[in-house]
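Because showing beats explaining, we let one protein speak, sequence and backbone structure tokens together, and leave readers to judge.
___
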Amino acid sequence: MEEYSQEDWGNHSQELHGYPTDQELDEIPVTKRTLKIKQESSEEAQKRDIMQNIVQILESVQLKWELFQSWTDFSRLHLSNKLAIFGIGYNTRWKEDIRYHYAEISSQVPLGKRLREYFNSEKPEGRIIMTRVQKMNWKNVYYKFLEITISEARCLELHMEIDWIPIAHSKPTGGNVVQYLLPGGIPKSPGLYAIGYEECIERPPSPHVERRTLDPGKEGRVDLETLSAQASLQVEIEPTRITYCYLGIAEVRTLQQCLFLHFQANTKTFSKDWVGINGFLSQNCIVDPGVSPKSIYIKFVEVERDFLSAGSLVECLEKAIGYPLKYNN
């Protein structure tokens, strides 16, 4: 039998698990290695955030866990060709509470097929579950699911996978009116789109600045003048998030036409009686001197026209984001 040194075993183990060996690591520049680690960490964080969002949706609709018993569970007709949000759970001999192992939106593969992969020991996903049950890490395995339409799947994709696009605006014209400048590349096809806004919230300077300005003595008086000037300029900005306020369905018109109608409405025809998203966007164009309008964002996803009439799209998005859409009826 061939003998290996401790170093050889380390490299052999790294190769088996697909990791680079120590020698290969030494050959990779430190900057590239750092960037790769940061990228992988960012991707893992994003996956974790998406899974937490899916779990939140499943919990918000109060579905019951079903005990996995046999393969026939997933061969049933009502699971064979459905799209769904699903979760895999488990409990232990010590704690009966069911915890999530995994959650996913099955938007491309039918639910029945996807679940079979998680309970098939020949698949990577199923092998993990089988091993934990065999080793008595887990007692029982459960699943739950919420059937969704194709349009609802695209709506959730819009929320979780599509980035916001900021809408630029012109300098004030006619005194206090700005115009929105829509980006190019908006599809001339049907689909879903969302409009959101961001507000910066100002807060007073940090308390430690005030404490330092109270120090007595000559040096303290000099520090007071310096820090007072800094404090008057240094307004700390709270981290903000983009708030969804409207979900649009471009079914009769295209995405480009719908967004053009929202953002290119002539402010001269603005009326205080306007309500809804057009009223909000028009009012945001009228600003006081020295005040910027709210930052507005859009995102969109193409969806085949035949699918857009199915499902409850506004309620689907509201469940995913956790609050009501202000300008949807």
